[in-house]
Amino acid sequence: MKKIITLSAAFLLVLSSTAFAAEEHGKAALKHANAAASGASAAEVKKHAGVALEHTLASALVLKGAAKNHMEAASHHLEEAVNEGNLEHADKAKEHVSAAISEIQAANK
User: Fold this and answer.
1) Residue 12 within any structural domain of the chain
2) Which residue segment(s) compose the domain that 69 sits in?
3) Beta strands in 28-97 (DSSP E)
4) What is the radius of gyration, based on Cα positions, of the chain?
């Protein structure tokens, strides 16, 4: 009986920790995406978009359903923002960041 209780508790802990991880990565992604959107240069936009991309990818690993789809779409936009930042196209990079912010917000609901 103790083994069943211990295994059940461990299982619940794992489930709650993955939900917590997704939420924390979602918050961090939104924070860095907003910083990218207000970046003054292409390099600054690229820097924050890259960090936001890492968080959206980590979040998408544990999310399911529509939230996962939104986070994957955000990842795509952030990847494009980084690519545009590499080309010194700050305005185009910010357009992708703006689209990513909308997707992250939808995923975080």
Assistant:
1) no
2) 21-107
3) none
4) 17
The structure's pTM equals 0.82
Alpha-carbon distance of 6 to 44, in angstroms, equals 48
User: Does residue 3 fall inside a structural domain?
Assistant: no
Cα–Cα distance between 109 and 28 in angstroms, integer? Answer: 15
The tally of domains found in the chain comes to: 1
Query: Tokens standing for 83?
Result: 């690519």
Query: What pLDDT, in 10s, does the model give residues 58-103?
Result: 999 889 999 999 999 999 999 999 999 999 999 999 999 999 999 9
The answer to whether the beta carbons of residues 71 and 59 sit under 8 Å apart is yes
CATH code, domain with 99: 1.20.120.660
pLDDT, residue 22, reads: 72
d(C-alpha 81, C-alpha 100), whole Å: 9
